Predict the 3D structure of the following.
Amino acid sequence: MTTIIGIPLENRIEESIKLQEILSKYGCSIKTRIGLHDMGDYKCLNYGVVLIEVVNNINEIYDSLAKYWKIQSMKF
C-alpha cells in the first residue's frame, strides 16, 4: 500500500523551516517528496503544496504534520 500526504503551505517562506525540520526527522521513511508552487506574472507566490510518499512511520509522520497544517492523505 502507498500513502501520499499533502501539506498545504499558506506562507511557505515562514513555514518551510518547520516543515523541513519534520521531514528531516523522518527522512528515511519518506520515499518521494515533491514541492509545488504557483508563479503569478513570473513571480514566485508565497503558497504551495508539498506531497510526500511515506513508506513507514505513517501515523507518526501524519500526527507530527497535523499539529501545524491541515493535511490530507491518500492510500492506494
